Amino acid sequence: MSSRAAAASILQAVLQHGRSLSAVLPEYQQQLSPADRAWVQAVCFDVLRELPRYEWLIKQLVDKPLKSKVRIIHYLLMVGLSQLRTLNTPEHAALSETVNATSRLRQKGLKGLVNAVLRNYLRQREALETQLAQQVPLAHCFPRWLRDRIETAWPEQSQAIFTASQQRPPLWLRVNAQAFTTEEYLALLAEQGIEAHAHAQRPYALMLEQPLDVRTLPHFETGAVSVQDISAQWAGYYLQAEPGMLVLDACAAPGGKSALLLEQTPGIELHALELEERRIPRMHENFARLNLQVKVMQGDAAQPEPWWPGQLYDRILLDAPCSATGILRRQPDIRWHRRETDIASLVTLQQDILRAQWQLLKPGGILVYATCSILPEENEAQIQQFLATTPDAQRSEPLAQTGLQILPGTEQSSHGDGFYYAALTKRDIK
Predict the structure, then answer these.
(1) Where are the domains positioned within the chain?
(2) Per-residue confidence (pLDDT) for residue 68, from 0 to 100
(3) DSSP class of residue 207?
(4) pLDDT tens digits, residue range 22-46?
(5) Among this protein's residues, is 322 annotated catalytic?
(6) Residue 252 in marked binding region
(7) CATH topology of domain 3-136
């Protein structure tokens, strides 16, 4: 399959059939060369980030909507326009390769349409882009309900959030503390001509200046380093685990935070819980690469009875299911799949899991509640409600006054994702 045909097929699967980009993309990438894999990902991310803009352009350039049996061409036109607008593909290559993709998609009879639409865009580009900027401003690349919620919750930061959510994220690494110091790994990167910077506050966190294939990183295959956004790397700091403690990572897949805890606090016994059985093999692969010993359990965090070993935990990390509104730059399809009615359901699920996990925590223990959401009802409001109805719960240092809300695009985020943390101590009130 050609890269253009693959990109169009992925977009159709995501936008027409409701599949997640993270599931569909690898299925097609495995059929492509490494260079084409990166190209297809770039196109799909661009289109999904700016979907309303591409829909507007096609509406101006195509006389009437394409029928369902040839709907794949609608997505192929988006692929063609993305090359001309964003990817800086030479015009002749963008046109010829996109037109040729119609044959791969069994729509050879629509070659003329694809060619005409893309050429028409090139002729009218300046006028169309001027109108587009007025018709579909940046904030409109979000569903209205989500845009309204972000603007209401964060009126001063909303534009920064919108802008950051449209940008390609930097590549953050976590150096394995059991293998190298930060300085040692920086030196290894420098030897390969890879420019990176250490985070001022989080040990072992490095940000690369340019993205690359992580498999080319020094000693990646032997567990020297992992990919993990800087916002996620605060989990260990707030959990305050110590050697000898029994720790649970609830909702653990793909295992990045479990690995962080074991690398930076050797001597803990760690249990990693995951609801979806299909995600567990990936966890085992990650732990094996890092040479970490983890008890992986499959089960529902809201219903501990079937899987709980019977021991109370000293520390629990609860990275709760959420709207994922803090990671839209990494998963741009989420904004088009999520519905406003999902939020209330997620809040209820979070409450159920939080209450169930609280019963598994020792008196004096700490539970860290985390999400990759920026919506207050999933975060600070959730914790306030829990504290108001749970007599033995209180906030824990260093988050004793309020939770930490990291907003993408703000200085506080350090170029990281949107995230929330709250730390709670279980008081012994007997």
Answers:
(1) 3-136, 171-227, 230-426
(2) 86
(3) E
(4) 999 999 999 999 889 999 999 999 9
(5) no
(6) yes
(7) N-utilizing Substance Protein B Homolog; Chain A (1.10.940)
